[in-house]
Design a protein that fits this description.
alpha/beta, Rossmann fold, 5-stranded parallel sheet, two-stranded antiparallel sheet, elongated
Length: 364
């Protein structure tokens, strides 16, 4: 993409804003790093627009015959051919608006790209016309990633192409907390912002051994937001699996270097005071002295906190350093935090917040 497109790269929510505003008339193609959450824009739009039916179309699995297929019809004794469209395009739902996401458009068979052009330009395919309030957008990887994403000029001219930036590690952490990802993974991510660097910002792939780079030919596994989610799923099973199995799985999910570094954090997390000790004896539960361990306790609490032990946590929190207390407060205040209402309406938290209002002046 051009330097201007990179300079004005949009975040996830801005891409969703643009699609919601213009995609009933102009198809928006979101182009970005692999595993950075392009496809999840459909989920974001579905939450914003509950009256639309969401349709996912995987362009990489289709051939020309999968777009439309002829069927014979009879009209007053005269045969003619009508083309029935693929159900996955959602065009049979003509009485309701849809949100159609054409995933991996850049990797599609050239014949499939051509077959979809009229739909993307005119909202029609064969004899089917989309509902006037329907939206169409597509996703694809960056061409520079070298994974086969090509966009012919005649197709490019029919659509609006925007670059989606990779999220920062802090923006991703807000999402991860709400989705209850493994807290030890969250602590590791917070300490390693380079995990979310794009290869486009790096000349030598050895500058960042964690991420995908097209020139790093001996790096089959690497860190993306998507692979971090998968690593979290594995870490949550570590009470059922020995360390060597966990490490093998992490190596195959996020790569050698990332797996070893992450496991060091996991070992630290396993030595933390238990949640049960904080719930039952918050005045006595061990408070670790290291900043990394304190960070892990805060992230563990943000993902697991419940009304039943919130008061006990506030007693424990008051024993922690002010930096850790501020980290918890800022986590609660983060936009979209799913347990924000529960925490902020708690009497113990309100009392603590009045006493420590200076901590809210800046992120800690």
């Amino acid at each position: 993409m051009t330097q201007a497109a990179d300079l004005y790269a949009l975040n996830h929510n801005e891409c969703a804003d643009l699609i919601a505003a213009v995609a009933s008339e102009t198809t928006v193609l979101v182009q970005g790093d692999m595993g950075a959450g392009k496809s999840s824009i459909l989920n974001t739009l579905s939450q914003r627009m509950p009256n639309h039916h969401c349709v996912y179309f995987d362009a990489t699995t289709k051939d020309l015959g999968d777009i439309t297929i002829p069927m014979l019809k009879d009209l007053d004794g005269n045969d003619y051919v009508r083309f029935a469209t693929n159900e996955e395009l959602g065009l049979h739902l003509s009485d309701k608006p849809i949100i159609l996401m054409i995933d991996e458009y850049g990797k599609a068979n050239p014949a499939v790209k051509n077959a979809l052009l009229r739909l993307m330009q005119e909202r029609q395919i064969g004899s089917y016309t989309m509902h006037s309030d329907s939206l169409i957008f597509a996703t694809t990887n960056l061409g520079a990633e070298g994974v086969g994403d090509l966009l012919p000029p005649h197709a490019r001219n029919r659509i609006m192409v925007v670059r989606m930036a990779k999220p920062s590690h802090m923006h991703w952490l807000d999402w991860a907390i709400n989705h209850e990802l493994d807290f030890s993974l969250l602590g590791w991510v917070r300490d390693n912002p380079q995990l979310f660097q794009s290869f486009t910002d790096i000349t030598d792939p050895e500058e960042n051994p964690y991420i995908y780079h097209p020139r790093a030919v001996n790096r089959p596994a690497f860190v993306t937001p998507r692979s971090l989610h998968k690593a979290s799923n594995l870490l949550k099973k570590r009470d059922k699996l020995p360390d060597n199995v966990i490490i093998a799985g992490l190596v195959g999910t996020i790569g050698d270097r990332a797996a070893m570094d992450l496991m060091a954090f996991v070992k630290l997390a396993d030595d933390l005071p238990t949640l049960q000790s904080i719930k039952t004896k918050p005045e006595e539960a061990k408070v670790p002295t290291g900043a990394a361990a304190q960070c892990l306790i805060v992230y563990r609490t943000l993902t697991a906190i419940d009304r039943d032990w919130l008061d006990a946590w506030m007693v424990y929190l008051d024993r922690m350093p002010k930096e850790a207390q501020g980290m918890f407060a800022n986590g609660v205040r983060a936009k979209g935090y799913s347990k924000q209402g529960m925490v902020m309406t708690n009497k113990s938290f309100s009392t603590w917040a009045r006493t420590n209002s200076f901590l809210f002046a800046a992120d800690v």
